[in-house]
Amino acid sequence: MSKKISAEFLGTLILVFFGVGAAVLGTGDGTTGNGLHGISMAFGFSIVAAAYGLGAMSGAHLNPAVSLGVLLAGRMSAGDFVAYVISQVAGGIVGALIIWAIASGAPGFDAAAGMGQNGFGPGYGGEFSLSAALIFEVVATFLFVTVILGATRADAPAGFAGLAIGLTLAAIHLVGIRVTGVSVNPARSIGPALFVGGTALAQLWVFIAAPLAGGALAGLAHAMGLTRKD
After folding, report:
1. From residue 97, how far is each of 41, 90, 230 by CA, in Å?
2. What residues contact residue 211 under an 8 Å CB cut-off, 6+ apart?
3. Which CATH class is domain 2-223?
4. What is the pLDDT of residues 59-75, one digit of tens each?
5. Are 109 and 180 in contact (CB under 8 A)?
6. C-alpha to C-alpha distance for 174 and 74, rounded to whole angstroms
7. Mean pLDDT estimate for the chain
8. pLDDT in tens, 88-133
9. Nearest to 56 by CA among 139, 146, 161
10. pLDDT greater than 90 at residue 55
């Protein structure tokens, strides 16, 4: 179990470091032009790296919504689920701390102005509504976790799970960065929100509740046989 916890902590740190780092350190807010594509690929590539580098240890969930889906699909224990979530959230916070520490070395840096936080409404991205944010996060997480559950089955093509999952996450970002900045992962959202505060913290419940709902629906659908062949 200690190796699983370490892998989930480090893997989630990798996800936040590359994905959020691409938004904060690399291309500004990442909502237009090459910024959108660059951040999308950074999140996707980070999943590929973690899946192939650490997946053999823990399965590389890196996401409480994924772990909830796996739990409800009958593929992990409740005890493991709790341990995974704690390590994932810790990894997300430490990853955000590292980005903050680096970004603080730039003149005029203000964490409140942008730490890759998720959000919606006036002043954020495309200024989408709360209902749009909820729909996107639930649906996107459902699709993401469904792909993960399918790609990691014993009868799935060997060696391709990490690539399929990473490309799916990149595609989700291409669709949704202007909607919410894309969470689909409470651990990814919690870290940046803690450093930004204000509206990011006030809206954080959306990026915890909606991804967990989407992950739960995916896990239940898989357990019922709706999204698997047998």
Report:
1. 22, 10, 44
2. 63, 64, 65, 137, 138, 141, 183, 184, 185, 186
3. mainly alpha
4. 789 999 999 999 999 99
5. no
6. 31
7. 91
8. 999 999 999 999 999 998 887 888 778 999 999 999 989 999 999 9
9. 161
10. no
Least Cα distance to 214 among 177, 178, 172 occurs for: 172
pLDDT number for residue 27: 61
In one-letter notation, the amino acid at residue 45 is F
Model pLDDT for residues 150-204, shown as the tens digit of each residue = 998 877 777 788 899 999 999 999 999 999 999 999 999 999 999 999 999 999 9
Domain boundaries, the chain: 2-223
Rg (CA), the chain: 16
Q: Closest Cα partner for 1 from 73, 92, 69, 86?
A: 86
Please check whether residue 180 is in contact with residue 125, taking contact to mean a CB–CB distance below 8 angstroms.
Answer: yes
Q: Rounded CA gap, 153 and 113, in Å?
A: 42
Given a contact cutoff of 8 angstroms between Cβ atoms, the answer to whether 33 and 12 are in contact is: no
Q: Which amino acid is at 192?
A: P
89-99 in b/e form (b: 16+ CB < 10 A) is bbbbbbbbebb
Q: Which amino acid is at 136?
A: F
> Hey, is 225 helix, strand or coil?
coil
Q: Are 165 and 147 in contact (CB under 8 A)?
A: yes
Three-state DSSP state, 213: helix
Task: Tell me the C-alpha distance between 67 and 17, whole Å.
Answer: 20
Question: pLDDT per residue over 9-29, tens digit each?
Answer: 999 999 999 999 998 887 644
